[in-house]
Amino acid sequence: MKVALITGITGQDGSYLAELLLSKGYEVHGVKRRTSLFNTDRVDHLYEGNSAGAKFKLHFGDLSDTTNMIRLIQEIQPDEIYNLGAMSHVKVSFDEPEYVANVDGIGTLRILEAIRILDLTKKTRVYQASTSELYGLVQEVPQSERTPFYPRSPYAVAKLYGYWITVNYREAYGMYAVNGILFNHESPMRGETFVTRKITRGVAQIVTELEECIELGNLDARRDWGHAKDYVEAMWRILQQDEPEDFVIATGVTTTVREFVRLAFAEVGVEVTFTGEGVNEIGTITACNDPEYQLPIGQVVVKVNPAYFRPTEVELLIGDPTKCKEKLGWEPKYDLAALVSEMVSADVSLFKRDKYLLKGGHKVYSYKE
Length: 369
Ligand code: NDP
Ligand code: GDR
Description:
The protein is α/β, with parallel strands linked by helices. Helix content is about 35%, strand content about 20%. It is built from 10 helices and 15 strands. α5 links the parallel β5 and β6 (about 175-180). The model has no long low-confidence stretch (mean pLDDT about 95). It comes from Hymenobacter crusticola.
């Protein structure tokens, strides 16, 4: 039985990856942070039924704590480490640049160094969660393994260090240490403040009449969006190759934030038309085609709020998946339409339940007034 250690197991990707590895017969260990509230919602179901429970274990830890990382790796003796732990919000990284450098950048070094100190360089393979944010300011499109990097945020700069220190440990010590340069991937498990989930939650709150409008930042930004379930499969494949290599994982299709909004509203039969420019742009309901959701024509459902702009923005990401298709045999099962449909449907169910509870005078946590 293979043993895997996942940092960031309580996050979106950590939860899907843990499920995948357990289904493949792995013993899965995860690092969770000590927090004042429960933070294991996304993985609690993995204990249930307990056939998986015995092979699934969480440990307290933090990527900023060197001795803790060394001790965990020594105790667990993992065959594979997936370093997914990070402060992963690009906008927030402008407010916490030093913390992000420590966790997202030096955190990667701590893992690699622990493996070296513990003499596990021949046993333990390391997957580093690199990112399309490394490309930043557009140098060429589509972006591939050969495209030069130009990071545009403290997050991306920290991840750039993580990328190169992984390459360096591979070359210097012959370690199986690799980067997956993943483009944006989303799901119903996505954190609520990333733009796709913010939009699908907003749509669900509007059709259940809990909110009237979504406030967003840059509607022109383009992203290559895939589904997290497909992307964790790629992570696993990257660690099963004979030779350690870095891979771009992407769909090859790019879409604006504005278009994502339109697609999400279309899922509930609501047509949204955008007018105006810059900070004055608005999205208005121009048709309601689903009898279940009859909202007023003319209702403004999207406004631009400059508070969501970033000091430096990444305008265009579109990945070239040629290498991962050819070498990993990886093909995404979801396209954008299927992703949007799954996310909207999950959030509509969530807010229908919340509306019911609110009507009964109960407190709900997914809806903040
Ligand atoms: P999430 O933000 O959903 O999850 C991040 C995880 O890291 C959480 O489990 C979080 O714990 C944990 N974490 C945060 N700080 C620390 C710390 N100091 N020590 C240990 N763990 C910590 O991210 P995703 O699942 O979306 O992404 C996974 C990884 O992949 C991240 O490294 C991200 O930067 C990278 N990535 C993500 C992409 C995407 O589109 N999703 C694309 C490319 C790269 P807690 O629950 O306690 O906050
Ligand atoms: P990103 O994802 O920065 O690409 O990083 P995010 O969903 O936060 O932003 C995508 C684009 O949408 C624009 N945008 C908004 N973003 C947010 N969060 N909130 C808004 O209201 C809003 N309005 C417009 C942003 O400006 C941006 O252009 C994600 C993270 O998962 C990283 O950890 C990961 O490395 C990259 O994807 C690949």
